[in-house]
Design brief:
The structure holds two protein chains of two kinds. By secondary structure, chain A is α/β, with parallel strands linked by helices. Chain A contains 15 helices and 14 strands. The longest helix of chain A is centred in the middle third of the chain and has 24 residues. In chain B, 48% of the residues lie in helices and 14% in strands. In chain B, helix 6 packs parallel to helix 7. Chain B contains twelve helices and nine strands. The two termini of chain B are 32 Å apart. Chain B has a single domain, classed as TIM Barrel (Alpha-Beta Barrel). Classes of the chains: A alpha/beta, B alpha/beta. At the A-B interface, strand 2, helix 1, helix 8 and strand 11 of A face helix 5 and strand 6 of B.
Chain lengths: 400, 262
């Protein structure tokens, strides 16, 4: 039986841990203590459950994609509709949890990093909800390609700080957020948006997203009377995937499939496929699979989806990978785009480009597996990606 | 056996003075420049050199050292080239050399490989800014086995329990982070340094060098009165970025030395 809990110092097997400057070690201890208290505090859990239900819109539907299933003529495909949550993605689950935690810790200044902007929007939203100051670090390149989300964050009262170093994407935004935290550690809560970074973030972020898998498992059993055969999730840092996978880790007959960004080619720098193209290393607080060159410098990454465009995968995924409990594959930009179009036209659902990677893998496998039951976690909706869809589908963009 | 690092602190202590620790990023602006820049710092009065190994994602560094790292990486600086630079410095000088970097390039090179090759190149010790004492055991064992000192950071946020572990794993000296924050020049010295010195002295006999935010002769002088060593980094890297050259670095180091010895 494979269990999946980190040890006392936050290691999943060899992965995870805390690779940060000494200044942050005591604050991380304080955060861990506060989190462990909150985890067993019924009042905290009740308040979170109420917000998830009445503010965020949980539970989300588990939708049987009948037309897509019939078209592919193989496995029966269900879609977990995290895209229907308030703010448009699963990210709100974690943000509500951490905002409650920051309030409990008495911190009124919140910093966050964002790639696609979904975590930034969710952070700005919970800060507005709780009356907290919100500063979001975002790579300049990501601000350009996720312009709508930049505006949404500002509309919600957050300050968006453009990060202009390095590749000007998520990795650089995380570095700037960490530098801010190192400097303002007494006053500031770092609302990290994925299951990565130093312990306790990977386990805490996972736990706030476990509701995805818990709902899915219960509802699926009710509908099908048995467990699914395969579950597909996209993996950037890996928060939606770990939240979904976690309820099924003990069910060894359920295949867990994480889909990374295959980008535009298999060349280093052209993708964010950490398992096929990377090796173990430490970045931004965690030890896990990372894209790096032969001298240990972190590689640039590319993906059409900003939310998957990151050099390191969350440490629990590294451990699930090495234990062969989950399988990780890569999907190219073009396949993700095609899958998004297909889902839009077949089911009337425009997915986020991140989630389209998971859809693509399910579409590829479904015809070969008749009689099998699939679940795709649709982690976010595609509104934010309208500009990218337009750029890539110019034939649909004639105004007349 | 006392290491070159320990000797440097012993010598200055016997003179009633503090050690001047100068940081520069190896390979900035190119690997060819570094040995002569180190020689200039030594002529100006630096007692110990922190040789920064550039890393692509330096989360503990402010903009000045980030830019120095970018220049060095652009010039093709690798861990192997930094060791070759150290060897070159060692041909002409006995100044203690401390590698100062992040964990990933070291892991990639291999802990044992690095310990062996660094020792052979004339390096005296190593400091990894993102390795906490919790993650340190394997690394410390590899370095100590090769006869290298391991320096750890102590911060204003470190609890007494953590300071004990920092002291246990450190050799040569303990690096006190004078303020919460990243590296960089600051107008004012932090008032969190004195309490950190007091609490660290209470549990360790190792020399204490303070850094982060120290950049002027007056600041260096003030810190020299309360710590065993003063670390200056960003101000030097800024001068290198401004093409101050050997003469500029020597002059700046001398001004720090004068401030500290006053």
């Amino acid at each position: 039986m494979i269990t999946s809990q980190p040890d006392a110092t936050g290691h999943f097997g060899p992965y995870g841990g805390r690779f940060v400057p000494e200044v942050l070690m005591t604050p991380l201890d304080e955060l861990e203590r506060a989190y462990l208290e909150a985890r067993r505090d019924p009042a905290f859990q009740a308040e979170l459950a109420d917000l998830l239900k009445n503010f965020a819109g949980r539970p989300t539907p588990l939708y049987y994609a009948k037309r897509l299933t019939e078209q592919l003529g193989g496995a029966k495909i269900y879609i977990k509709r995290e895209d229907l949550l308030h703010t448009g993605a699963h990210k709100i689950n974690n943000c509500l949890g951490q905002a409650l935690l920051s309030r409990k810790m008495g911190k009124k200044r919140i910093i966050a990093e964002t790639g696609a902007g979904q975590h930034g929007v969710a952070s700005a939203t919970v800060c507005a909800l709780f009356g907290l100051e919100c500063i979001v670090y975002m790579g300049e390149e990501d601000m350009r390609r996720q312009r709508l989300n930049v505006f949404r964050m500002r509309l919600l009262g957050a300050k968006v700080v453009a990060v202009t170093n390095g590749s000007r994407t998520l990795k650089d935004a995380v570095s700037e957020a960490l530098r801010d935290w190192v400097t303002n550690v007494h006053s500031t809560y770092y609302l990290l948006g994925s299951a990565l970074g130093p312990h306790p973030y990977p386990v805490m972020v996972r736990d706030f997203h476990r509701v995805i898998g818990e709902e899915t498992r219960a509802e699926f059993l009710k509908r099908e009377g048995r467990l699914p055969d395969s579950i597909f999730c996209c993996v950037g840092g890996g928060s939606n995937a770990i939240g979904m996978f976690h309820s099924f880790i003990g069910d060894e007959n359920v295949k867990l499939i994480g889909v990374e960004a295959g980008g535009r080619s298999e060349k280093l720098g052209d993708h964010a496929a950490r398992f096929s193209g990377g090796s173990p290393g430490a970045l931004q607080g965690a030890y896990s699979y990372v894209l790096q060159d032969s001298d240990g410098q972190i590689s640039l990454t590319h993906s059409i989806s900003a939310g998957l465009d990151y050099a390191l995968v969350g440490p629990e995924h590294a451990w699930l990978h090495d234990r062969h409990r989950a399988e990780y594959v890569a999907c190219s930009d073009m396949k993700a785009l095609a899958a998004a179009q297909r889902l839009a036209r077949t089911e009337g659902i425009i997915p986020a480009l991140e989630s389209a990677h998971a859809v693509a893998e399910a579409i590829e496998r479904a015809p070969e597996e008749p009689g099998k039951l699939f679940i795709v976690n649709l982690s976010g909706r595609g509104d934010k990606d309208t500009d990218i869809y337009r750029e890539n589908l110019p034939e649909l963009d004639d105004p007349i | 056996m006392t290491t070159r690092i320990q000797q440097a602190f012993d010598r200055r202590k016997s003179e009633g003075k503090a050690v001047l620790v100068a940081y520069l990023t190896a390979g900035d602006p190119t690997p060819e420049h570094t040995p002569s820049l180190v020689a200039a710092l030594e002529r100006g009065g630096a007692d110990l050199i922190e040789l920064g190994v550039p890393f692509s994602d330096p989360i503990a560094d402010g903009p000045v050292i980030q830019q120095g790292s970018e220049r060095a990486l652009k010039a093709g600086t690798t861990v192997a080239k930094v060791l070759a630079i150290a060897q070159k410095i060692r041909e002409a000088s006995q100044i203690p050399l401390l590698l100062f970097t992040y964990v990933n390039p070291v892991l990639r090179y291999g802990l044992e490989n690095l310990a062996r090759d660094a020792k052979a190149a004339g390096i005296d010790g190593c400091l990894l800014t993102d390795v906490s004492v919790e993650e340190a055991a394997v690394y410390v064992n590899a370095m100590r086995a090769a006869g290298l000192d391991t320096v750890f950071l102590a911060a204003p946020t470190s609890t007494p329990g953590r300071l004990k572990l920092v002291a246990k794993y450190s050799s040569g000296f303990i690096y006190l982070v004078s303020r919460t924050g990243v590296t960089g020049e600051r107008a004012e010295l932090s008032d969190s340094l004195q309490p950190l010195i007091d609490s660290t002295r209470a549990i360790s006999k190792l020399p204490l060098a303070a850094g982060f935010g120290i950049s002027t002769p007056a600041q260096a002088g003030a810190v020299a009165k309360i710590a065993d060593g003063v670390v200056v980094g960003s101000a030097i890297v800024r001068l290198i970025g401004e093409n101050a050259g050997e003469a500029g670095l020597e002059k700046f180091a001398r001004s720090l030395r004068t401030g500290m010895d006053a």
